[in-house]
Structure formats: structure tokens, C-alpha cells
TrEMBL record:
This is Response regulator. Residues 125-152 form a coiled coil. GO terms for molecular function: phosphorelay sensor kinase activity. Keywords: Coiled coil, Phosphoprotein. The modification 4-aspartylphosphate is found at residue 56. It comes from the Bacteria. Residues 8-123 form the Response regulatory domain. It holds the Pfam family Response_reg.
Length: 210
């Protein structure tokens, strides 16, 4: 796989040894960028927009939980899945991670198989979110186009000045036009010409007298 095709992963840990381990495990599958505390993670995520974040919990300056919460508050980074990495075990750690918006969490020491599997699930979620956002964007665009189209539909309304004798209609420019022409220009109506019974009797009295 070309490097440009690999998904971009932000690995966040204040210990170099842990970052080195993550990079060694994942660099054949992903592009890896690093941050060494929670604040740097937030800044890097806003700048680089990674596909996934691996975040250590206990860090100086800003903890992983605080950084996760900060990222979920920003529209630009809200949809980036975050996997928390912690040495703590138990339901409380999981609860804390999920409450701030983490997608998942793994405990140290972790296996490569487990980590990659959880990352795969998180990336599938990211792809689904991106697809849904694209569909919603296309839907919104279609709604706007339809709204504009309806706004341009020609309609007849208001007071129409019409000659009581010849039945011509005066348009907005002050010109008089045949009623058929005026209605055709200002609506979707299509005319077919015929003759009504009263006019037929007036025009062809001999035919009806027979």
C-alpha cells in the first residue's frame, strides 16, 4: 500500500517508549504522527485531522480524558474516533472514557491483534460517519436546488388588467398581449384551440338551424 493511501493515526503518550512501541506495531499499516500531551494532541488533531486517535489517559498539561472531551466539543474534530489507552482496569475506567466521548479503550499491556482489531472497528465507524455526512450534504444541496426551482416557477396571482372588449391583458411593461400569450408566459399551462357551443352557433347559424 502506498504511504499516501494509509490512514493517518495520531498517537498520544507522554512516554517516548510507549510512542516508539506504537509506531513499531503500526507503521507498516498506517501513517503515524505523535503528540506528547493532551494539549499537543488537541492542537495536532485540529491541524492534521487524523482518521483515528490513540490517546493515553495519564499525561501532564492535559490528561487524555480532558483532551478527548475538548476534541468532542469542536465541530472540526468531533467525528474523529478516539481509543483511550490506560494501565487502569475496571468498569470505572471504561465509564470515564465513554463519558467523555471515547469510542473504545484498551488496557496496557495490549496485544497487537487486539489493538489493530479495535482500530479497524473505529475506522469503520469513521467511514460510516463520513458517508452519512456526504449523503446529508447532497440531500441539503438537492433541497436548496428544489427550493430555488420552485421559486422560479411562473405563477399567476394578483390583479390582472384585462380589456373588457378584446380580452387582451396588459403586462408589467404596459403592453397589451393576447390572453393565451400572457398565460403561457406566466404559467405552465398549454393551450389547445377549439370552439365553444355558443360561439359555434353564432359563427355557423345555418349549420345549427338545420
Amino acid at each position: 500500500m502506498e504511504n499516501s493511501e494509509k490512514r493517518l493515526i495520531l498517537a498520544v503518550d507522554d512516554e517516548y517508549a510507549n510512542l516508539f512501541l506504537l509506531k513499531g506495531l503500526l507503521e507498516n499499516r498506517f501513517r503515524i504522527i505523535e503528540a506528547k500531551d493532551g494539549q499537543e494532541a488537541v492542537d495536532t488533531a485540529l491541524r492534521e485531522r487524523p482518521d483515528l486517535i490513540l490517546m493515553d489517559v495519564m499525561m501532564p498539561v492535559m490528561t487524555g480524558l480532558q483532551a478527548c472531551a475538548a476534541l468532542k466539543e469542536r465541530a472540526e474534530t468531533r467525528d474523529i474516533p478516539i481509543i483511550m489507552i490506560t494501565a487502569k482496569t475496571g468498569d470505572e475506567s471504561l465509564k470515564n472514557a465513554l463519558e467523555v466521548g471515547a469510542f473504545d479503550y484498551v488496557t496496557k499491556p495490549f496485544s497487537e491483534v487486539e489493538l489493530v482489531a479495535r482500530m479497524g472497528n473505529a475506522l469503520k465507524l469513521r467511514d460510516q460517519i463520513d458517508t452519512l455526512k456526504k449523503l446529508n450534504l447532497e440531500k441539503a444541496k438537492l433541497i436548496i436546488e428544489l427550493r430555488d426551482a420552485f421559486a422560479q416557477v411562473k405563477t399567476l396571482r394578483g390583479l390582472l388588467p384585462i380589456c373588457s372588449s378584446c380580452k387582451k391583458i396588459r403586462n408589467d411593461g404596459g403592453y397589451w398581449s393576447q390572453i393565451e400569450e400572457y398565460i403561457t408566459l406566466h404559467s405552465d399551462a398549454v393551450f389547445s384551440h377549439g370552439i365553444c357551443p355558443d360561439c359555434a352557433r353564432n359563427l355557423y347559424p345555418d349549420f345549427f338551424d338545420e
